[in-house]
Design a protein that fits this description.
503 residues; alpha/beta; Rossmann fold; 3 domains; six-stranded parallel sheet; 52% helix
Amino acid sequence: MKQVTDEIVRILYIQTNEISLLDIPRVLDTQGYEVYQGNFGLHAEKYEAAGCRRIISAIEDLDIQCAVSYDFIVTIAQACFEAGIPYVAWVYDAPQKELYTHFAMYPCNYIFAFDKMQVRRLKETGIKHVVHMPLAVDGEKVKMVTDTIGKKMKSGYQSQITFIGQLYNKGYEDTYLKQMDEHCRHQVHQAIDTCFLKWNKNLSVYGLMSEKCVEALGEMEGRKVQRYYPYMSEQFFYEALFLCRILANRERIHVLNKLAEQYEVTFYTNDENTKQLSDKVKVKPGMSYDVLSHVYRRSKINLNMTLHCIETGVPQRVLDVMAAGGFMLSNYQEELEEMFVPGEEIVLYHNEKELEECVAYYLTHEEEREQIARKGREKVLQKYNFHEALMKVFQYVNQEERNRQESYIDIQAEELRKQVNLLLAQKDEQRYQRLCALLTDEKYETILRKFTDLHTVRLMAEFSRNEAVGGRICIFEDVDNIQQAEHKYASLQHALWRIEQGL
């Protein structure tokens, strides 16, 4: 493992084929880091040995001190573990399956997760470094884009209500529900009904599926959870990635169709199958970040419906909308209530009735709506920007690496003391020469600067070696261990002081 003697300076930011967010390296560059960017053809969800070797080569060739990615990538974790450098992963998924693999257990990993409950769950698995860190925006970039929009923006809005995302129309019901027996299907529907369009602090999707339902799903998929995600229970896996997706699909279709009966609703998505939506919903293709900022700003209401598997955290979309100056109407999330002032910087709903009331009210109260959007934007740009967040990230990482290095030095010092005591116990004429050779080795210089007992032995050994060469009587002849050496050295210093004082 590389020794960390200074602050981290050289960083390798690694993209994957699915994730290529470049705001992080840009901001790190402005903070004075030497940032290298690499795309090694990685996929977020699987380990790739060839990619691992390429990353290790880049780390060695560029003398990289730390690797960084958006979300946790198992191949990067393996490469950093082998290269002996820290790996920083800022996670925006909850839960991210890969965090429940053996790759996540490496001590070099620093996991920053946006959901407090996910942090708690990950700590319970045994991950050493896992820290809560809300997601963020590139404040400078957002200001530049939105200021440009403001100058070009025509008066008025393009849409009354805008929702951006996906329907999670993956055929879960056809693939899995139809294969279950009637009892299990009924239990799944009950679980969905329990959480359907309900968000509050005391309601969770986790724990709603029976063991029988979980067992049935596990059998259908050949026990893949146990094989691929050993630190994740089957119940947690299927509630997060099966139940929550069916729930999200039903909620989003229901809300979009119902609101479209009274209002102009625009849905931006990359989904190919939107046939369950009413013809009244305007479906448009997904857009680039810069164009989306324009959409957020020119929508009267930007709607958020968080996946129920995100227990407390704030999705990236919410911050993006608010940073662009868009009015955000979101379902309740515990951390939204902690980060923002409801009714002043953001508006939250807990159920379908509140959602409908908020839409009706804020579409007809433009001044109040725009004031909330302005205050929300100010809060995000001031407190939840990449500059502030990344400063906190690397303050933590640097401190932990210093602590690790201190611990490593302490262990090395103990090993060195054992070697020194063995040499001191030897009574042959060469022991001082061997001690000098050992303690003047450059690799121990940091240890000797920190520990005075070992530094004292080195001084004693050098003095004794010179005495032996000159044929004089060795005043340290009766020293058999480090403790005796310290005592003898202190006695000699005291004697010299008395002589100097004429005592």
